[in-house]
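Hey, I'm writing a tutorial for new members on how sequence and structure tokens pair up, and I'd like a real worked example in the thread rather than a made-up one. If someone can provide the structure for the chain below, I'll link this post from the tutorial.
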Amino acid sequence: MKTIPDYNTTILVDQSPKEVFDAINNVRGWWSQNIEGGTQNLNDEFNYKYKDVHHTKMKLIEVVPEQKVVWLVTDNYFNFITDQNEWKGTKIIFEISKKDNQTQMHFTHEGLTPAYECYQICFDAWTDYIQNSLRNLITNGKGTPNPKE
């Protein structure tokens, strides 16, 4: 039986694991300035909003400094899909490790698979946020998050 892969992507940077960890937790610096709530400590909860298109609530369920951050999606709404449960209960995982003289950050949205109606849009969005915005925040201190509404 073939397992359908969860969405994942990896970046490799010259910065330290601490710098990568700090950038991940600066969610307003790479994902959106429309974040309300805590984004750094275990059990913090935050809300993300993008216009009337996407609203989601995350809870930090694992925080291991310089190694791992896991968000649990506790609520979610997309205005462009039928099944509003697609993201609910999924996990967003950031894993940090050393690779040669660089730091690797592996991102997985566990539960986001091609079977989801939102998959292609979410694939494109996560790829841009991780490969461009988060990478730029890590490497040059400036991401491209969604602006404050």
